[in-house]
Amino acid sequence: MLKLEKVQSGYGNKLAIKNVSLEIQEGEIITLIGANGAGKSTTLMTICGVVPCRSGSITFQDREIQEMAPEEIVRLGICQVPEGRHIFPQLTVKENLDMGAFLRKDKEGIKKDMEYVFALFPILAERRNQDGGNLSGGEQQMLAMSRALMARPQVLLLDEPSMGLAPLVIKQIFEIIKQINEESNTTIFLVEQNANQALHIADRGYVMENGEITLTGKAQELLANKDIQKAYLGI
Amino acid sequence: MDYFIELLFSGLTRGSIYALIALGYTMVYGIIGLINFAHGEIYMIGAFTAFIVATVLSIYGFPLIAIVIIAGIAAVVWSSSYGYTIEKIAYKPLRHAPRLSPLISAIGMSIFLQNYVLLAQTSDFLPFPRLIPDFPFMEPIAHIVGSTDLVILVTTVIVMVALTFIIKFTLIGKAMRATSQDRTMATLVGINVNRVISATFIIGSGLAAIGGLLIASHIGQINFYIGFLAGIKAFTAAVLGGIGSIPGAVLGSLILGLTESFATGYVSSDYEDVFAFSLLVLILIFKPSGLLGKATNQKV
């Protein structure tokens, strides 16, 4: 469904990702794990067209998208929940969700989807008229994910959804990710430092080091891999 | 007491004009973090456009109300296209340059436009036609509040209400707020940030043009240099209220207008600017982010 081939990109004259090839099938959950600064977030930003792709190709449903503008990529159905959540702090919860549906014109569908995310995260319904900036970290993560869902994505890119959250909240977030994947057949590309959690819900995983993919395999295999255990799972 | 009320209204009138210009400064700053020093010139160009259109139309004997409306629309359209073009030529190529570069580009644009109008028009003061007649119903209080003051105040209130509606409830308004709060995220939800920036320049320039038309018919003369002082004053008002904040710009403008008016009325017109800028210095000492501005910590 989404395929990266020998993608290079970066900031200024530095390459943050040097040679990344990976592939996601429809309906899958895949995870990209790696240390800080390995290039995981840059990979997501390159897919979304925010960081320009220097060479290589990105294909989505047989269309090359590496030259497209970010809004065209969103329109195709690729949405990202960036690291640090990026809630619009002075927009209300409802307005944040409206922004998620920015490119959609079907008022009825938007209303239905808003009810869907409110059912998914009842706390957001309670706070719908509060400013996004006043929510707690966990609530902001829920809002960020809901905002992305408002665009009805085919592929949801999640960057460090567990960052800075309490263990109980993390558990809840990961359950919801699984639920989104199963209920609406949304393909999920999960970037995580919390490798253990991520590999437990993922179908397959990629390991990234210094801007390159060094290892890939089924999530279960990676969990059992001695090197991975030592480097990322702390076992 | 009459004198006090007269000063009050004259202050509110001034403040309204400042507000129409200050909004452009504050909106642009809110979105791209740039002080658009050419904004005063946009206002001046609005006044000139209104001048040319109104003069031509009055030669052909159009009724006054038609002249006001057509000149107003022409000024708004013409100034907005200038605002749009300036952004594309002078600021957009510098979007990722260090912050000082677009600022210098803005100052250059300001000087260019002043001299362009100087050469294309004239360096003399031009008599601006009287567009607003004395209303008969204002007769009993005409010594306190003039008809022009009334029109300026009413127009400003209507424009402010319309602007608030746009910013609060329309999709482009929400997109503007979203972009000013988090540009990366705005891109990620599919907002075309370039289009939002253009819209901001167009709206801000249109407001300045309305201000230009109103003040020119109030004072009765214009020249190529009127944008400079008006621009500086409106910028001061925007900083006073907290740059980037829309209600702040309006509040700052009204306070500045009233201060000037009372200083002129009770002290001396020579001290008008002294009081205005002393007020700015005082507020910046005690509340550096301005009256309604938020103290932001620069991320390192």
Explain what you see.
The complex is a heterodimer of chains A (235) and B (300). In chain A, a hairpin with a 2-residue loop joins strand 9 (204-209) and strand 10. Chain A has one domain (2-87, 152-233): P-loop containing nucleotide triphosphate hydrolases (Rossmann fold, 3-Layer(aba) Sandwich). Chain A contains 10 helices and 10 strands. By secondary structure, chain A is of the alpha/beta class. The longest helix of chain B has 31 residues, at 2-32. Chain B is mainly α. The radius of gyration of chain B is 19 Å and the shape is globular. In chain B, strands 1-2 form a two-stranded antiparallel ribbon. The model of chain B has no long low-confidence stretch (mean pLDDT 91). The A-B interface holds A 48, 50, 69-71, 74-75, 79-80, 82, 86-91, 95, 98-100, 102-103, 147, 151 and B 171, 174-175, 177-178, 181-182, 184-192.
Radius of gyration of chain B, in Å, reads 19 Å
Relative helix content of chain A: 40-55%
In total, the number of domains of chain B comes to 1
Mean of all residue-level pLDDT scores of chain B: 91
Interface with most residues: A-B, 24 and 16 residues
- Please give the count of helices of chain B: 11
Shape field of chain A: globular
Amount of beta strand of chain B = under 5%
Helices and strands, with pairings:
The complex is a heterodimer of chains A (235) and B (300).
Chain A: E1 2-11, E2 14-24, E3 29-34, H1 40-47, E4 53-60, E5 63-64, H2 70-76, E6 78-81, H3 93-100, H4 107-120, H5 122-126, H6 137-149, E7 155-159, H7 167-184, E8 187-192, H8 195-201, E9 204-209, E10 212-218, H9 219-224, H10 226-233
Parallel strand pairs in A: 3-8, 3-9, 6-7, 7-8
Antiparallel strand pairs in A: 1-2, 1-4, 4-5, 9-10
Chain B: H1 2-32, H2 39-59, H3 64-91, H4 100-120, E1 126-127, H5 147-169, H6 171-181, H7 183-188, H8 193-219, E2 221-222, H9 226-241, H10 246-267, H11 272-286
Antiparallel strand pairs in B: 1-2
Helix pairs in contact in B: 1-5, 1-8, 1-9, 1-10, 2-3, 2-4, 2-8, 2-9, 3-8, 5-6, 5-8, 6-8, 9-10, 9-11, 10-11
